Amino acid sequence: MTGGAVVEPAGVSGADEALFRPVRTGNPFEETVERLLQAIKLGVVAPGDRLPSERDLAARLNVSRVTLREAIRALTESGYVESRRGRYGGTFVNERLPKPRRVTPKQLSRELSGGIDDALVLRSALETGAAEAAALRELSEAEIDHLRRCLVETSSARLADYRRMDSRLHLAIAEVSGSASLTSATAEVRMRLNELLDAIPLLEVNLGHSNRQHEAIVEAILAGDPEAARRAMQEHLSGTAALLRGFLA
């Protein structure tokens, strides 16, 4: 909430559609929790924002209202959301989210058992392709505004919010590629990468460098230059990969 006003979920609908897609039938409760956490942790629904209505979410996720309520209860007990009653009620993302699990680089590296390289290769394939595809499209004014807004929010983010806003920008690039499947896959690999990123320090020099690379990626997309967009994204991802391998090797 900002100044007492209800804030609806914002942005272009691509990420909403990708993350709030129908769950598989095998584990509806677990997958519903996963989808809601993805939306929160990747910044699609920001702290203080209201989740879509219960009826809408249940329909989009293709789960029963009972399953959805159980998932929301689990997230409430875990400190991610709260329910409010009244005319402007609903389920809201908490202003202060639980801190990521803290482990040492060595512990995380052992747990991943070689998964670092797998996640980095997958990320490179997905995100360079997303940047190229986005540059090939004629973007709408709403998509352009969404991309620029995410860029500004990332470059001006507080240190505590940087990971979330960075995730949101990368997801926005996938959104404007026009492929819901690519957006969904990018969200899933970003969740894997965030666990790795949370285990290494945020370096101010690196953040300044990353912000300049973000600008180059977005400008190449808006200029309709797919080769430059792919190249700028690859350079950016290579820097992140070097830090992860350095700290977690």
Helix content class: 55-70%
CATH superfamily of the largest domain: GntR ligand-binding domain-like
Radius of gyration: 18 Å
Please list the strands of the largest sheet in the order they lie side by side: 1-2
CATH top level assignment of the largest domain: Mainly Alpha
Instruction: Find the CATH topology of the largest domain.
Output: Four Helix Bundle (Hemerythrin (Met), subunit A)
SS strand fraction: under 5%
List unreliable stretches of 5+ residues.
1-13
Number of helices: 11
Characteristic key phrases:
249 residues, mainly alpha, Arc Repressor Mutant, subunit A, Four Helix Bundle (Hemerythrin (Met), subunit A), two-stranded antiparallel sheet, 11 helices, globular, disordered N terminus, GntR_C, DNA-binding
Write the topology of this structure.
Layout (H helix, E strand, L loop, with lengths): L13 H6 L8 H14 L12 H8 L3 H13 L3 E4 L5 E4 L11 H8 L2 H22 L4 H15 L6 H14 L4 H18 L6 H19 L3 H23 L1
Antiparallel strand pairs: 1-2
Structure description:
This protein has helices at 14-19, 28-41, 54-61, 65-77, 105-112, 115-136, 141-155, 162-175, 180-197, 204-222, 226-248, and strands at 81-84, 90-93. With 249 residues, it is mainly alpha-helical. The chain has two domains: 14-93, Orthogonal Bundle (Arc Repressor Mutant, subunit A); 105-248, Up-down Bundle (Four Helix Bundle (Hemerythrin (Met), subunit A)). A two-stranded antiparallel sheet has the order 1-2. It is globular and about 50 Å long. The model is unreliable at 1-13 (pLDDT under 50). It comes from Kribbella alba.
